[in-house]
Amino acid sequence: MAVALDVIGGIHRTRESLDAALAAQTRALAIRREALGADHPAVGVSANNLGLLEQQRGNYDAALPLLEEAVAVAEHALGPDDLEVGTALNNLGRLQHVRGRYAEARALLTRALAIREAKLGPSDLDVAVTLQNLGLLDLLEGDRLAARELLQRVLKIRERKLDESHPEVVAILDSLGTLNYRIGSYAEAQALHERALAIQQRMLPAGHPDIASSLRNLALVSAARGEREQALAQASEAAAMAEKALGPSHPDLAPLLNTLGMLQRRSDPAAAVATLERALAISARARGRKHPATATSLLRLGEAHLARGARTEAEASLTEALAIRESLGRDTPEVAEVLVALGELELARERPEAAAPLLERAVQIRSKGGIARHQLAEARFRLARALATSDPPRSRDLAEQAAATLREEGSAFAEELAAVLAWLQR
Question: Within this chain, do residues 306 and 394 fall inside the same structural domain, yes or no?
Fold first, then answer.
């Protein structure tokens, strides 16, 4: 009976019938615990399945003890180096990543990788899964070059062993596209995301949340390339599609609302604030107030408040975002993003002496590898404005460096270049 219920639950999960899957897999676990005892390997399998389902439903707190149980049962029944232990460790590590527990995630994933490579060799598909999880962790922790190395290795494994339309090929195309976007390689990012989207549109039902995610990724690239109207249209379509597929409060909706709000900010700051307040509420409720996803919502909300001239509200949101991101590492690109926004806030308050140390830190962080060049130019120009009175020679030098970079970056940054040149000629 338990085996049949697990199969039924898996079918429902594949079909996105998550409530029916939950009922079947909850019952399967209960039957196996009663019939076989808490330490039987089959109990671990059921706990793993149910934990993954709860994670898919966005119930991370419910998923955690189930996936921890799966690890414990596998270790007790099979030994610490068994392949089933590697699988359970990988799944638990991915959950801790999503929960924002990066140190725990890295330890679990590193152990999972060691088991899988030892048992399966360096080019196995299961090894690629753990490599991808570690690469995404590197990306979130700010080591973009290390992330690219791992994710390129994953793509090579999957392209050799899987059909182009396989979901795992699509997943790595999406991850590499995001990485190239963050590095500033926008042509490569667009090509990867368009390839992923084309496969999804061919293989998935219309309106699937994965299609919405790819549209959102393309919206970010379009915005970075200066195609703002197209970006806003893509982000709006993505958010509406995801909400219809997932419901109005699913945690996976929040990133799409963050992107939509960020793009609304330029033309309609009030609409941006409403969108981002909703994203913040979803993230805080599902993942907690100190989660990295919550920090992103706070950052975008702070930027929108600043665009409206609501400086007190902007300061509150940005300060909270900075505290969350600094708790994960003080010198990451994600921290620099908040520092730039806080520096702009202080410039708007005509407090250059308060802006300068924030922007000095941002320039230092963005001068490292793996950062889009226009983002360094942005930080340099804001620092130039902060130093205009206290250090005019350095101020001018920073602005000229920013202008040179923006000129090299091309027409997508013509508006930003014009602003720097106008400031230099004031």
Answer: no
Please report whether residue 127 resides in a domain.
no
From residue 166, how far is each of 136, 163, 356, 416 by CA, in Å?
19, 5, 49, 41
d(CA 325, CA 323): 6
Q: 303-352 pLDDT, tens per residue?
A: 999 999 999 999 999 999 999 999 988 999 999 999 999 999 999 999 99
DSSP secondary structure of 227-238: -HHHHHHHHHHH
Structural contact between residues 118 and 81, judged by C-beta atoms closer than 8 angstroms: yes
Contact assessment for residue 252 and residue 209, using Cβ atoms and an 8 Å cutoff: yes
What pTM does this model have?
Answer: 0.78
Same domain, 113 and 137: no
DSSP state of 171: H
Residue 396 lies in a domain: yes
pLDDT of residue 141: 83
Please provide the average confidence, as pLDDT, over all residues in the chain.
92
pLDDT at 191 over 80: yes
Is the Cβ–Cβ distance between 392 and 409 less than 8 Å? no
Asked if residue 46 and residue 151 are part of one domain, the reply reads no
Let me know: does 199 contact 170? Beta carbons within 8 Å.
yes
Report how far apart, in Å, the C-alpha atoms of 203 and of each of 158, 165, 173, 198, 403 are. 18, 7, 15, 9, 45
List the structure tokens of 111.
Answer: 């152990």
Q: How many CB atoms lie within 10 A of CB 114?
A: 14
223: left (phi over 0), alpha (psi -120 to 50) or beta: alpha
The number of distinct structural domains making up the chain is 4
pLDDT of 193 above 90:
yes
pLDDT in tens, 220-266: 999 999 999 999 999 999 999 999 999 999 999 999 999 999 999 99
Q: What is the DSSP letter of 369?
A: S
